[in-house]
Amino acid sequence: MQIHNIAKQVIIVGGLTAFLILTGCGQSSNKAPAGGPPEVAVVTIQPQRVVITTELAGRTSANLVAEVRPQVGGIIQKRLFTEGADVKAGQVLFKIDPAHFQAIHNNAQAALGRSEANLSAIRLRAERMQELVAEKAVSQQEYDDAAAALKQNQADIQFWKATVETASINLKYSSVTAPISGRIGKSSVTEGALVTANQPLPMATIQRLDPMYVDVAQSTTELMRLRRRLEDGRLNHNVNIRNKVHVLLEDNTRYQWEGVLQFRDVTVDPTTGSVTLRVVVPNPKGFLLPGMFVRAELEEGVNEKALLVPQQAVTRDPKGNPLTFTVDAQGKVQQREIKIDRAIGDKWLVSSGLTPGERVIVEGIQKVKPGASVMVVPFVENAGKTGGADKPAAPPAKAN
Fold it and tell me: By C-alpha distance, which of 295, 278, 281 is closest to 210?
């Protein structure tokens, strides 16, 4: 019995050993022959026309703002508008108790009427005194007194006319009107509140929201870089697009109306080292509100011979300098140090280091080294998105 069990175990061990030997032989027979050149995917660099844009952060503001303040003091009788509604210029917003101003106006009118009533009698007396003094019937002093009384009465009439006009203005100011057309905000006073002339706290604020302003800041470094590109001829101004601005909202959606660059400030903010750019954006539906955070995409110009390479084709040396690998006519790998201008989509805009027609390795960079021979296949962008370890990670930030 023991002999039978031992024989059975020997047979099982021998079978396992044979199986492992056959498996090892099968793996070695499927292994690819070594020594062949590695395969890399390349893209041929060709110049193309690219619109160069700059994205700057900013905030919206109303193009016209008016704070409503009383020009006379008194008690608010009525508020004649709805908060948050649109108002027209000249529309009555608040009614201040006009009784006091009406009384002053009536008093001034009465005094004016009295002076005008006395004018005729005083004028006639002065004319008669002038005739009598010529005949020596009255003294010169009496004539002078009559003439002075006439001038004083005429001056009183002018004074009371001005007083009536002032009283009329103050009476008119008891109705507080909208200085501009726009959307009015919340009211800071209610009926029965006491207000004073030219008080520091506005009664309400009106803002014109169409069009809207977008104020963005551009660093002086970026501004000088743009000027150098224009002077070097790497960037051309296109009069049809250079003032167009696209607005990106906080949720990364694009605003449906294009803006126009109105001006660039001439003063640099010493605290931030930047200048302010003002963009005018249509807002017919009132979608934009003052104080919203947005990003403005400004079209600086056109690069007629831009060289773009996929971001995954660019690596960096230990110092952070951008590098790329090309394949020459003999099928050998060449390492190139390049200069990057900025990111455009998922590509880098190369300012130097590459020439048109060169083949840049996009996939398979980790398999090669300078001077090695490679087998070249065209790079397929959609297929490249599913690649694995061969694709180096490219930094997403824009280059300076």
Answer: 281
Q: Pick from 256, 284, 300: which residue ends a domain?
A: 300
Asked if 186 and 202 touch (Cβ cutoff 8 Å), the reply is no
pLDDT in tens, 164-194: 999 999 999 999 999 999 899 899 888 999 9
Residue 81 CA from chain centroid, whole number? 31
**Spatial separation of the C-alpha atoms in residues 148 and 151, rounded to whole Å:** 5
Same domain, 287 and 213: yes
Cβ–Cβ < 8 Å for 203, 68:
yes
Q: How far, in Å, CA of 188 to CA of 70, rounded?
A: 12
Which residues span the domain enclosing 106?
Answer: 99-173
pLDDT in tens, 36-75: 788 888 888 888 888 777 788 888 999 889 999 999 999 9
Place of tokens 């003002």: 278
| 22, part of any domain | no
Contacts of 375 (CB under 8 A, 6+ apart): 36, 37, 38, 39, 40, 331
φ/ψ of 202, rounded to 5, equals -70, 150
Contact predicate 314/323, CB 8 Å: yes
Measured from the Cβ of residue 271, the count of other Cβ atoms closer than 10 Å reads 6
The token pair that represents 100 in the structure block: 């006091």
What is the spatial distance between Cα 267 and Cα 186, in angstroms, rounded to a whole number? 35
